[in-house]
TrEMBL record:
This is Unannotated protein. Gene3D superfamilies: Acetyl-CoA hydrolase/transferase C-terminal domain. Residues 1-68 form the Acetyl-CoA hydrolase/transferase C-terminal domain. InterPro entries: AcetylCoA_hyd_C, AcetylCoA_hyd_C_sf, NagB/RpiA_transferase-like. Pfam families: AcetylCoA_hyd_C.
């Protein structure tokens, strides 16, 4: 899946800790943004969270995403 890591007008991350709506697509193998490529397929939820934050999330959103991942017990 390819997307922008940041919504410039709203000034928010497009990579979010949780999705509140129903999702009908299968797990994506990779998430590609202008920040890089996060490998997701075959990895644990913990590894996926780490990869998304480190490799695909916008730098301005990473601290908030790390905090959310810690709150969800996905990272130490």
């Amino acid at each position: 899946m390819a997307l922008s890591s940041w919504h410039a007008k709203a000034k928010v991350s497009t990579i979010v800790p949780r999705i509140t709506e129903y999702v009908t697509s299968f797990q994506h193998s990779h998430v590609v943004t202008e920040q890089g490529v996060a490998d997701c397929f075959g990895h644990s939820e913990n590894e996926q969270a780490k990869n998304l934050i480190e490799q695909a999330a916008h730098p301005d959103a990473r601290a908030e995403l790390w905090a959310a991942a810690k709150q969800m017990n996905l990272v130490g």
